[in-house]
Amino acid sequence: MDRERIWTAALVVIGDEILSGRTQDKNVAEVATWLNQQGIRLAEVRVVPDDPMRIGDAVNALRSTNDYLITTGGIGPTHDDITIDSIAAAAGVPVIVHPEARKMLEDYYSSRGLELTEARLRMARVPEGAELIPNPTGGPPGVRFDNIFILAGIPNVAKAMLQALDGQLQGGRPMVSVTVGAFAAESEVADLLRETENAHPGAAIGSYPFTKDDRFGANFVIRSADGDLARTTGDALTERLREAGFEPIEGGI
Amino acid sequence: MDRERIWTAALVVIGDEILSGRTQDKNVAEVATWLNQQGIRLAEVRVVPDDPMRIGDAVNALRSTNDYLITTGGIGPTHDDITIDSIAAAAGVPVIVHPEARKMLEDYYSSRGLELTEARLRMARVPEGAELIPNPTGGPPGVRFDNIFILAGIPNVAKAMLQALDGQLQGGRPMVSVTVGAFAAESEVADLLRETENAHPGAAIGSYPFTKDDRFGANFVIRSADGDLARTTGDALTERLREAGFEPIEGGI
Prior knowledge:
The structure is a homodimer.
Chain A: E1 7-14, H1 16-19, H2 27-37, E2 40-48, H3 52-65, E3 68-72, H4 83-91, E4 95-97, H5 99-110, H6 118-121, E5 125-127, E6 131-133, E7 142-145, E8 148-151, H7 155-164, E9 176-182, H8 186-198, E10 204-212, E11 215-224, H9 227-243, E12 249-250
Parallel strand pairs in A: 1-2, 1-3, 3-8
Antiparallel strand pairs in A: 4-5, 6-7, 7-8, 9-11, 9-12, 10-11
């Protein structure tokens, strides 16, 4: 294996609605998948409440230990949208109204015959020194401040902002994953899984059990930044499963 | 408002499969909802990879700042199931085979004509001093160690283990939430939301926007441990929305 730089990101999901159980988060999986396409590994996620100190602590802890930090949630016009202020405070910079964002909001509201009220203008506020992230859905933009990417919480808006960032972040090789499934109880294949992983340094095998039609099964996911190694390891695992009397199912069950 | 003790818990979700985007987490919402029923507030969630140090750091940081810590994932029989070892190491205690868990596994496998192999016996390992959490689905048990509750990662098994813990954890009053929805753009109601919240100390109002049939709308969720206060605040908000020309929809949209 060549030694190569691994690029990492962390995600801070901001929102009482996730912690109360009211809303099922969808941004973690979306951000994780997108990061992987950019060759960046999602190293940690924290879900924190709408509390400036808690947001600031999570942001500062994770932005210093990762190449990138993404946040979702809390950038709308209402009193509970405190992400911008919390991040600016954590970084020790003032909040300013971004001229370009102000212009976008003015155009947006005037085209609808509406005024740019103080509440609406909140959506143009950014930590001083920040740039805007385009919002292809037409709403207010996201915000990039240093290595922090501040996205909307609504999943389709967050997703559109990520797409606007496609290829903009430096990363390494995307992680390649190969999945093999079998109707085997995990405990029956634990040894061969471990042995196959040990025989292929640089590849990690995850085992994810399920029951289907009252049968035990598991999917085995081989992951590596080295695509050839991932495939070789997948082939080796397939062979070992077959030898052990299980029918391997390529791509998983 | 009477000052009362607020009980909190944190959740550590252990699993590369969540961070890779392969698996959509379902345990956060489930744990959040269950905790609320016990009168315990979910204060933070961290999703960490299958890495002993990362698991240990998250567990130690969160168990000391919350009344309870729950973990999901990584307690099966395969090489990537490292939760027990990681938590024991973080707490500075050895891992032992729990006699009762061993007996349960022996009974389970012998009734199926199967041997208790080393891989299967892994599921009886616990940090020294731990107790078992019943698993009503019939599989291996969860583990309680001090204020840490170690649950399975498979959502229906995690849920069953939580149900087995119903009423076992000391908590306070459950949080009461009242939802009012309206077809209003958030920026049109930002002021009245803030004013209503300010007029009702002890109640928090969250605003969750959506678009439906090309119309802007939002649900407003009033939350308080004081049920009467939550309802009074909901009534006041309903009145304010009506005055502002929006039709309030009880229970949300």
